[in-house]
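Example record used in the benchmark description.
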Amino acid sequence: MQFEAGAVSPNFIICGAAKAGTTSLYQFLRNSPEIFMPRIKEPHFLVRKSISGRVSTLIESPEEYLGLFYGSDSYSWRGEASVFYLYYHEEAINNIVELLGLDTKIIILLRNPIDRAYSAYLHAAKYNPQENLSFIEALQSEEQRMQDPACSPMLFYKAAGLYSRMVRAYLDVFPSVKVFFFDDLIQDSTRFSHDLYEFLGVQMPDVRSFDEHQNVGGREWSSKFLGGAVKMLGTRSVRRVARLAAPKVYESFKASLARNMMRSVVPMDDSMRAYLEDFFHDDIISLSGLLGRDLTHWMS
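Model output (structure tokens):
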């Protein structure tokens, strides 16, 4: 498959990881006068085969995908953010090379995989009808879930945090890959912003910083009844229609519910953290060597 000659398409891609700050990054970049981001986050078009049956795909044809960038030819940079491009890196890389070209810039945002796993679980427990287990039960059931062709990869709490092989795959193919870290975004958003715009080669605009974070986790429904009702409304078909028809209204509605009808969650149990530290240990060491950055503090 090839896009038609002269088609306006993205020239940079945000690949994930899920629950690592990609929504904040997406919203921030939308404020830049030189950068175009489509109104829909996570079209996942470039991994549509891998997620078929697992995720409600918003964009299913080349025409729909290119339509996201209609009228953006005057922008220096056009991008999109789909978190499963990291986990399903093989299909994503093949399609990026074939459809967008090797000169496509790749942005990867990583978070401590232990914290990311728990954050992803809390997110799924709030919104995904497939998640009805406790965190420990979900971790124990992960291999079985991965064999289920209808299970969302958002529920692959451990597998999605084994970053080293995924990141290496992008580094081996693309000449322009930048790995950012959730830690840096939280600790020094100004420096993070500067490094981001320097990578894209554009002037940093005078817009709000990342101080207003998006899609924040750490909260749960105040009652099981309310949570169950929201999950019923959050089925794939309903989410797809809502996000396509009125994405801003959909996200605003979710944020309003989170503010007014949720409570803080209990932190991860120490024994669960120790288990995940052991699980991710070797991959964190491998990633540290790959990127030349000591990430062992993720296990402290």
